[in-house]
Amino acid sequence: MPVYTVSNVQNLRICVVMVGLPARGKSFISQKIVRYLSWLSIKSKCFNVGSYRRQGAPRPSAEFFDASNEEAYKIREQAVTQAVHDMMNWFADEEGVVAILDATNSTRERRKWVLKLCRENSIEPMFLESWCDDKDLILRNIADFKTSSPDYEGVDPDVATADFLERIANYEQVYQTLDAAEDRDLTFVRMMNIAQQVIINKVETYLESRIVFYVMNLHIKPRYIWLSRHGESIYNLEKKIGGDSSLSQRGLQYAEKLPEFVRESAGDRDLTVWTSTLIRTQETAQHLPYKQLQWKALDELDAGVCDGMTYEEIEETFPEDFKARDEDKYEYRYRGGESYRDVVIRLEPIIMELERQENILIITHQAVLRCIYAYFMNVPQEESPWMSIPLHTLIRLEPRAYATHVTKIKANIPAVSTYKGRGTSQVGENEAIANKSLDALANPATSD
Amino acid sequence: MSGNGSEVNMDLESTTVNAGNHMARTRRRWSSTSKDKRPKLTDMTDGVHEDGELDYISPGQLYSTESGRLFHAGKILIVLVGLPATSKTLLSVAITRYTKWLGVRTSSFHVSEYRRKMMASVDYHNFPNDYFSAKPKTSEGRTKRKEIIDQVLADMLKFFSEDKGQLAVYDALNILVEERLQLDKLFSQMNTKVLFIESVMTDSEMIKHNVDMASRSADYVGWSQEDAVADYMHRLQVNKELYEEMTPKEQLTYVKYTNFGEKLVVNNNRFGYLVNKIVFFLMNLRDKKGCVYFARCGTSDNDKYVDDEMLNQEGNKYSATLTDLILKLVNERRAAQSSPFPPSIEHAAGVGATARSLTPTNSALVNNISSGLSSRSMSPSLSPLLATHASLRRTESTGNASMRQPVSGDGGDEDSFVVWTAPRKRTHDTARFFDEKGINVRQRSQLQQLHPGVVADMTEDEIKQKYPAEFKEWIKDPYHYRFPRSESYHDLAVRMEPLLLEMERMRGDILVIGHESALRVLYGYLMACSCTDIPSLKFTRDELIEISFSPFENRVRRVPINYENSS
User: Fold this and answer.
1) What are the chain B neighbours of A305 within 8 Å (beta carbons)?
2) Residue B483's pLDDT band (boundaries 50, 70, 90)?
3) Which residue has the higher pLDDT, B24 or B249?
4) Which residues 275-294 on chain B approach chain A with CB closer than 8 angstroms?
5) For residue B548, which of B538, B558, B540, B533 has the smallest C-alpha distance?
6) CB contact under 8 A, A202 and B404
7) CA nearest to B410 within chain A
8) For A7-11, A366-370, B115-119, which range has the lowest pLDDT when averaged over its residues?
9) Helix, strand or coil for residue B143?
10) Strand A188-192 vs strand A44-48: parallel, antiparallel, or unpaired?
11) Whole-Å CA distances, B103 to A273, B52, B166
């Protein structure tokens, strides 16, 4: 019997149809939703009509988006048709649950067309409009867009801004906002200036309400999140998993140096430290001069009957379990313990809290860090349990509109490696894996 | 709630900056004196209307702060707005239950309760009839109205200024712009944010249901239903003429809540996270027609924490009996509920409701009753459950462009029945017979039992011997204390919060099969139990717990499960 993250996923397929002028943060919201749901194992994918259009018109000028430009209109029409077509195939062939149609969808006619197609395929559309008249917010979005969009590759920034404003003006001429009276039969959400004013109409499932709540908590204020494992522990030295041991000598050294590292990276910023309830994370945080909170949800993956054993002992005592775990590490649940999926489900309130908070330093454990890291960096489930996250390393995440930037700060305090590759009971990284882990940390995963 | 305030304050100050729950635990709140002050609840009552002690820590609270206020939200007054029969009381009680559980010091103030208490000596027939109008015409009505409302306002002000209240919920009509602006001004001056929640109902079925409920309320004991309905409809009609709906022009922060969540408009949201959370809650809150049932899982041979076994013979007998019992209870209730409203309501409600106009969607609904494919897991004729009003009215619309897809399997319909089990084999094995009958069974990892840590499968005596120091701590505060490597009840509550929201959305019947620890937390929410009570709630295999819902409070019934004598 499958485990449900939310119970109504069965038989339910949702298409979140974005609505809004350019530079209203639609792509930001779309990518965040996909990241959040994928992380919760709800199959989701974003279909960005702009990237389809680019195949026919790689670097169009503003006139291209004039509604009276017939030839251009054809290309744009083709792009959206292709995107929707691919989306339907994805629902059918890959058992998709939530698709995001990321486009302006600015006219009622276009939305009606999407609605009809969706319903004919037993997909429920939820329209999500981002409406904004806050000039500063729009200009900030434009600044982000023109530096990251292939549309303006190599274009002078001032020219790009002027052109983009003209493009928006062209859309404005035909734009029809969602209307509480006229669109009353649709499931829709209309957010004005982020979440200052929100209309929520006919949200009829829990999954939809979760998406809406999540979007309401997003913010784009600049901030950092720091992640660190606890310092090297006595169990680490003994190659045992789980337990609640204290830090080793070198682990205590890391704890002592941590305030300095954090200050180098954070400057004078005020931040809050989150730890698990286990001794090793609290010992690691003991010298940090910030407010601290303990979360049970940040405790290490529970290895059940294998808690306190070395991998070699596990292989010997439970050879079948040992093999089963290597075959599907994400789903494997230790006898009397947890799977990675279970950890993700219990981390969900932490993620919601993280989204709304500003600067946070999290000191936790290998498996939990893998899950949190996977959320921010969009690492797929097959890979996340195998990521190498070394001890005595501070990771800084900087969530930005289109990607999360990562910086890795290595403390020069030696520690054992606790990494265990597939098909072996030996811990320790060979060079190839070590390099791979560096790559994984250096390349921010974007969602395309 | 007042009294020995100075001592309590000192206590609070000592647990400031780093106050995680581990800090909260060190406080002296479980001293025997503070326990004695609390009226002992029997395990059958809903505690949502009880006020906590000043340093009370509620079940789902994440951390405590010096001021006793959470989420950096400051003080908030929620003002309900709306005509009679728009579920204002239900909304205010539900919000109170939820925010209290989250650890926000909340109290609801119902004008109708104040009136009943303050005017207890006055016979209802002699009560000035225009008291119930927002603008009474007689001076007697005006005086009475002012007297009662002034008392409520005074108590709310006191709640904020003296009782460390963070959230007050004010349940009254508040249908005049003038009243609302005055409230906003009065409380803004006191550094309290004011959030209005306006309940608008245009759905005549909902109004009929509410009028039906009201005509059976405490006001109408001894009345014929016809007279009661007529009197209540009069109250509604008088105010309908005076009602000024909220608009952005008033420049207030408000949520307009139409037809119980069909539409929500959040206007001028300046208050951040706590308001977002309440909106999320309102998005999921539904009026429940069904009940929530709690049952333990059946027995397995070893019944050890780390073993993950299927049921043994006795366990199977238990599950078979449980399955039959619940289906019988649900069907009996559904049969009793299927009668339509009495004629007096059918007639009367036309006055109150702006009858819902037949939009194209609705007429399509009428014409397409049998078209489209059923996406439900089974056809109604095969279901072991009685068809209800709702099942008969429903239309299947898969593939039809003009209407929403049916929501299936998540319990959103009032005639649905869903079984939730924990991930342990013995709990979903207990649901096997439901599954065989085609009823939705869902395994929810959040229902995993409390992790016992090092004391797994030990008796109290064994714990006392092996971990004497820990045992002493645990006895002091069984809700927040964690044995080494274990979860506390509080940890359990935090991880189960998403389930509560989902449960609020489910309108039909739900059976939760779980370990005693998980059931305690869910029950603790639905019955607003305190932290002192939750760890000692009893759930045995001899009894099925049924919780039913009404606007002002939830009710519990215990039904015996006789599986030992069954063949």
Assistant:
1) 306
2) confident
3) B249
4) 276, 279-280, 283-284
5) B558
6) yes
7) A8
8) A7-11
9) helix
10) unpaired
11) 21, 11, 10
Which conformational region is residue A243 in: left (phi greater than 0), alpha (psi within -120 to 50 degrees), or beta? Answer: left
What are B207-218's pLDDT values in tens digits?
988 998 888 888
Q: What domains sit in chain B, N to C, each tagged with a CATH number?
A: 1-31 (no CATH), 67-284 (3.40.50.300), 292-340+405-451+487-560 (3.40.50.1240)
Say which amino acid occupies B244: E
B169-182 b/e (C-beta count within 10 Å ≥ 16 → b): bbbbbbbbeebbee
Q: Where are the alpha helices (DSSP H) in A95-193?
A: 108-120, 135-148, 157-174
In angstroms, the CA B531 to CA B521 distance is 10
| C-alpha dist (Å) from residue A116 to A119, A121, A179, A182 | 5, 9, 18, 17
Sorted by sequence, the CB contacts under 8 Å of residue A283 that are 6+ apart come out as A230, A231, A246, A247, A251, A252, A255
Asked whether residue A312 is marked as a ligand-binding residue, the answer is no
Handedness of CA A111, A115, A121, A122 (dihedral sign): positive
CA closest to A291 among chain B residues: B18
Task: Give A344→chain B minimum CA distance, Å.
Answer: 10
Strand order in the sheet with B253-258: A44-48, A98-102, A14-19, A124-131, A188-192, A197-201, B263-267, B253-258, B192-200, B75-81, B167-171, B106-110
pLDDT in tens, B22-73: 333 333 333 333 333 333 344 567 888 877 665 566 666 655 444 445 555 6
CA-to-CA distance for B177 and B174, rounded, in angstroms?
8
Contact B263 A342 (CB under 8 A): no
* A340 Cβ contact partners less than 8 Å away, ≥ 6 residues apart: A301, A329, A330, A331, A332, A367, A370, A371, A381, A384, A385
Mean pLDDT throughout A27-38? 92
- Encode pLDDT of A295-317 as tens digits: 888 999 999 889 999 999 999 99
* Other Cβ atoms within 10 Å of B15 Cβ, number: 18
- Min distance A55 CA to chain B CA atoms (Å): 31
Which token pair is A101? 């149609």
Nearest to A228 by CA among A435, A426, A32, A408: A408
Q: Residue B540: how many CA atoms within 13 Å on its side-chain side? A: 9
Rounded Cα–Cα distance for residues A80 and A73 (Å): 11
Of the candidates A222, A255, A262, A232, the one whose C-alpha atom is nearest the C-alpha of residue A358 is A222
Query: Which DSSP category does B324 fall into?
Result: H
b/e map A87-116, b = 16+ CB within 10 Å: bbebbeeeebbbbbbbbbbbebebbeebbe
* Interchain CB distance below 8 Å, B412 and A8: yes
Suggest the residue from A209, A210, A282 to mutate for an interface test with chain B (most B CBs closer than 10 A).
A209
CA distance B295 to A356: 37
**Which residue in B has a C-alpha nearest to residue A13's C-alpha?**
B405
Q: How many interface pairs between A and B have CB atoms less than 8 angstroms apart?
A: 170
List domains and CATH numbers for chain A: 11-217 (3.40.50.300), 225-442 (3.40.50.1240)
A300 given a catalytic annotation: yes
In the block, residue with structure tokens 């238990």: B318
Q: Residues near A309 by Cβ (< 8 Å), separated by ≥ 6? A: A240, A241, A242, A303, A317
* Residue of chain A with shortest Cα separation from B443: A3
A319 class by beta-carbon count within 10 Å (0-12 exposed, 13-18 middle, 19+ buried): exposed
Dihedral (CA of B420, B423, B427, B431) sign: positive
Average of pLDDT values for B142-155? 93
B439, B415 in Cβ contact below 8 A? no
Q: Which of residues 321-360 of B touch A (CB under 8 A)?
A: 359
Structure tokens at A23: 């530079």
Q: Does residue B11 carry a catalytic annotation?
A: no
3-state helix, strand, coil in chain A (%, to 5): 45, 15, 35
Residue with tokens 């073993």: B307
